[in-house]
Write the structure tokens for this entry.
Amino acid sequence: MPKKRTSVTTSPINFRMPATLRARLRRFARARNLAEAEALRLLVSEHLDEVESERELAEAERWQLAQAYSSLQRVGRGEQEIAAPGEVDRIFTAALTRRPTIRPR
């Protein structure tokens, strides 16, 4: 049974595009068997996804830095200890030995 197509409300956009950029768009579209408008929508969508992902990554990095700085301050005040050398390795090794093995089907 074929999938039912859902329509997406669109609105036209009109803007000037330099001839060299238009030629690049046409080459991109032709290489992917797309109409120019589809190719342009794809490029805009992918670029915006990338920009949003970069913003989210930057926010996550800022959060991680704040958490690390907070931990460092607690260590400096004596409220938190640093793991002894080899302790992290011991914990991970113990966890790996308890991990159930996954058998291929």
Q: What stands out?
A: Helices lie at 19-31, 36-76, 87-98.
